[in-house]
Input
Amino acid sequence: MTDTAPLFDRVAIIGIGLIGSSLARALTEYGVARSVVCADRSIDVCAKAMELGIVEMATTEIPVAMDGADLVVLCSPVGSFAEVGEAIAPHLREGMIISDVGSVKQAVLRDIGPHLPDGVHLVPGHPVAGTEHSGPEAGFASLFQGRWCILTPPPGTDAGAVEKMTALWRRIGSTVEIMEASHHDRVLAITSHLPHLIAYTIVGTASDLEETTKSEVIKFSAGGFRDFTRIAASDPVMWRDIFLNNREAVLDTLQRFTEDLTALQRAIRWGEGQQLQDHFSKTRTIRRSIIDAKQA
Amino acid sequence: MTDTAPLFDRVAIIGIGLIGSSLARALTEYGVARSVVCADRSIDVCAKAMELGIVEMATTEIPVAMDGADLVVLCSPVGSFAEVGEAIAPHLREGMIISDVGSVKQAVLRDIGPHLPDGVHLVPGHPVAGTEHSGPEAGFASLFQGRWCILTPPPGTDAGAVEKMTALWRRIGSTVEIMEASHHDRVLAITSHLPHLIAYTIVGTASDLEETTKSEVIKFSAGGFRDFTRIAASDPVMWRDIFLNNREAVLDTLQRFTEDLTALQRAIRWGEGQQLQDHFSKTRTIRRSIIDAKQA
Output
């Protein structure tokens, strides 16, 4: 197999939204799969995916999409995984790889794991990439370029399956990191889940303020607020499911955040300027590291 | 006076950092002033401003910069205004306009107002623009293009002076809004000050987490965290002064934010998915409004 030969015959994408459609485009454009098909529970979304020409076939029936597939990637919201796990169970074949792109990873093992017999390989994945837009029309093939993809295969997973999934993500431009699902969920709680929760909160607080009009909040958003609104425009169902499925890590991280916020609040109330300045100086250096790591 | 004639003979910029140097550049480039000079308490910053060629003269002595100036604009951190007010007091002349670019506005009236005799016009201003970078080398003439500038002249301010400052900001690309200082401070508390406080907090929380390494936080920052780090890289002294000088409005807004965050925290803990989804759907529409208002 050369570096440019397809890695898979047929990839079935379950759920063809922003990430699913970006993956479908990338798998075709970078020659990873001979054929890409999708299943989505919405007939309208299926029609849109066909119209966009990003899949060979779209269907509302998961078994139809799985026919002939050597890789099935779950790209629907994490809350649907238990149901999808049941739907795929009767159609699994020896040697198939089952993966996903969910933002929480312990829940994948919990919801999909029990449905898989020996010989079917579960290699959960999480591309750390996205935009605030949703739907198949929002996707693009280069979304994963220069981004990280975290794989969390459970202990004992077939090494060949992990290698194939690593090769897939590398081929479409990502750098792959392998870690335990529980560790993933703690790291992402702080780098992604808490930032989203905070952004959703502050945008809600702003829109509820009765003494400032909504138009003023929008007018003067360039002072910092607008950066939060981009994050708070992310898909509501996807994020509902992330918070419900990474509850412990999110609540723990949130508790630490609240303690830190209370300390700064107290410093403001008591006019402790030096404490504020020291804190603000420390956080500045983190930004520099992110720029240096080319993740800015 | 035609639309392109200079509005001022000589403008003295006090404090030549990101905003001061951007203003100096813009006043020259758009022909607003015949001459722009600056005072800065750092001799190194003065030398840098001269080297960049953005002022006709730079000095550490405020009275020297004020000589012959018909407009003095305070661009130093808000916490320095009481001291600067004392320094400029003996050198004020009939007809002079005193302005500033501070992010809080009631403090300007408090700290500068008492030093000004009748016939000297105080027109406080706040360009809602900036970047996370600091210093004279970070400035650029187009920083204010397409942004809002809020003027908060106290009741009874000379109308001609307000008109001239309005014309200045329009000439360099901004849209001017006039409001009361106290209203400004409440609006900016939610659109700018609280977002910065939250960003500073979460970046600090992340860097203190012992179970995830700092390199992991940086690696996977594209999941949302990096948007906060940009804001949390803003000038530490400037932001210390903003929080200390808009204490009441910031603490009040923070209290509302904390209540809202607690409600979402509770919804996560008790698995109330519908409440989360409803909240996240509401915030999404705010983003759309900001894009429509061309402030994204």
